[in-house]
Amino acid sequence: MDDRQIITMYFARDEIALAQTQQKYGEYVMSIAHNILDNVQDAQECLNDTLLKLWNLIPPENPKDLKAYIAKIVRNMAMDRYRDRTRQKRGSGQVSVALSEIEDIFPASNDVLSEVERRAFVAFLNQFLQTQPERERNVFILRYFYMDSVSEIAKTYKLKESHVLVILSRTRQKLKKAMEKEGYAI
Predict the structure, then answer these.
(1) CB 18 within 8 A of CB 48
(2) Multiple choice CATH, 95-182, 3.40.50.620, 1.10.600.10, 1.10.3720.10, 1.10.10.10
(3) Using CA atoms, how far apart are residues 51 and 17, in angstroms rounded to an integer?
(4) Contact at 8 Å (CB) between 151 and 97?
(5) What pTM was computed for the model?
(6) How far apart, in whole angstroms, are the C-alpha atoms of residue 143 and residue 94?
(7) What is the end-to-end Cα distance of the chain in Å, rounded?
(8) In sequence order, what are the residues at sequence separation of 6 or more whose Cβ sits closer than 8 angstroms to the Cβ of residue 3?
(9) FRET label pair with 145: which of 46, 58, 123, 168, CA 20 to 30 Å apart?
């Protein structure tokens, strides 16, 4: 079943939309959630929460790209769950490693950016990534949006892990320079 048909079922409040979404995107959602949380039960809860959120958001939302819409929802839910879990106990894992790799290029303060500043930064980041070669852009996104491990990325692109690390390092350096040029505090 294609995404437009699934979205139409959400608009009709047909519960089959949930089953179709889970059938088509369940493994995808679990993969994103598990990469962030490293826990099958938490990932399963994120899947269930994602389905509930989709049910509550569609309608009125009418996503143009259902897969990307779902990815954003599950990533945000998993990151919230991760932050809640690590607030209680500081642990290690893919998320802390990935976040530590990019912490030196993002604003140092813990102040929350205003919505306008956040949107401007997201637009800047998207524009920066569009200037990068496709493979480098995808490697960066897999690492820092989907929180894939370096070994998973290496497998996906049939590269050595050291090559993935070099790509990530160079892209972070380019991003840092672009941010400095645009006047972002680092």
Answers:
(1) no
(2) 1.10.10.10
(3) 9
(4) no
(5) 0.68
(6) 9
(7) 46
(8) 65, 66, 67
(9) 58
